[in-house]
Amino acid sequence: MQYIPTIGLEVHVELNTKTKMFCDSLNDPDEKHPNINVCPVCMGHPGTLPVINAEAIHKLMMVGLALNCSIEKNTFFERKNYFYPDLPKGYQISQYLKPLCYDGHLDIATSNKLQATKRIRIERIHLEEDAGRLAHEKDATLVDFNRAGLPLMELVTKPDLETAQDVIAFASELRLIMRYLGASDADMEKGQMRVEVNISVRPEGNVLGTKVEIKNINSISAAGKAVEFEIRRQSELLDAGKKIVQETRGWDDVNNKTVSQRIKEGSADYRYFPEPDLPPLSFDDAAIEAVRNELPELPSRRRKRFKKEYGLSEKDVEVFTLNKALGNYFEKVASELLAFDNLKHLERPAKEHEPKLLKLASNYIMTELSRMASEVSASPEETKIKPESFAELVVAIFHNAISSSAAQIVLKEMFETGLTADQIVQQKDLAQVSDIGVLGAIVERVITENSQAVRDYKKGKEASLKFLIGKVMAGSKGKANPQVVQEIIKNKLS
Predict the structure, then answer these.
(1) Smallest Cα–Cα separation from 4: which of 163, 203, 244?
(2) Same domain, 52 and 86
(3) pLDDT by residue (tens digit) across 104-153?
(4) What is the spatial distance between Cα 18 and Cα 59, in angstroms, rounded to a whole number?
(5) pLDDT tens for residues 422-439?
(6) Which one, of 166, 64, 71, 63, lies nearest residue 119 by Cα?
(7) pTM of the entire structure?
(8) Which domain-ending residue is among 376, 408, 428?
(9) How many helices and strands, by DSSP H and E, does the chain display?
(10) 468-475 long-range Cβ contacts below 8 angstroms, 24+ apart
């Protein structure tokens, strides 16, 4: 029987504040030594009092507004009571009754990134403190409290997702938004973002099935695999006439399957009550609008703008959206190409050639410049190649002033020295030769010295033409314009 999946997500993201959520211990995800960034407050010592981190509140409001949420004007923190070895206080300060952000949505695209096709409703987003980290060894379990108390955002969706692709698209877009906002690096390998899946399956027309929660998912691709596995597992159980147990399962990344962990608690088991040591939070419309005005351009808008303004392909647009620094550099180069103010010594290409210029710039930035910058762990704007110099190089390539092989040499030299393309071309004598008189003499010599290839070409063997062009290129030390050479050879042998 075919079953319909119903999927909701719980996503936890650590915010990149300077200090922890309720104390002044450092928030440093790169700290290698355990139990360094701790203090009596985040360790839950008797008599200590928490203080709310204003930066964390501000960043969560930005996230909520970016995800089209309403902001709760009057809210408060609560104690969520449960015991776990890496929870120092024996309870977690969280929100349950009145989350800071609620009733939002995120539109996702499962195929064409330029066209969002599905709306995923967001039920709530709230702040809480993170727990510590456990390290399991053969005869012991060690606890690192560096992470305990970090500001942790929890986002809960409505059960609007239906496929593994939906899950991957939502988690990927959310991670990108967090990075655009500067709210978190959302690095799943470092545990800065954790995705938990709530999933059930049901026959068509039936009420919702029994929900199963999947934890311990360490990558977005693993979340997709976990969904696919759980749909199969639950469908096979129902086909066999068995019941689905409401439980928490973990994802086994080695064996690519979910495994049972524990029976799921209900919210009543946590015994929520207002945190007595923290004051309530209140916001007016002006405060909320002030945060809204700080929002940067978000990925969905950037995709549409890049497509409209620069006419790039979906693939190019997505590269420049995912890699914001690379896209920013492209925009500066594009501005130089379209304005042409700093390229006086080169002939300005006609306006109808602008799409070709932009595509040429896009290709070289995404491939050559991106590769060279990554080799030295730098962003494009941190390299020695200024956008106006890069634009000059693109125009030189467009005009066939230099060959593609020479362009590689010039770009590498620009990267290492910071010199302009024109300076390097002059210094290294890399200008491409298009003069018909000069090239005609080389072609005459090549035709005379390669009579067999000439006869083969006249018999219709196109490979012979490439052979002759190669000989001319060698005779010109690689500086001949191959298109001009081809035309000269064809005219002489016609």
Answers:
(1) 203
(2) yes
(3) 999 998 776 667 689 999 999 999 999 999 998 888 999 999 999 999 99
(4) 12
(5) 899 888 877 776 657 777
(6) 166
(7) 0.87
(8) 428
(9) 16, 16
(10) 468/443, 471/446, 472/439, 472/442, 472/443, 472/446, 475/442, 475/445, 475/446
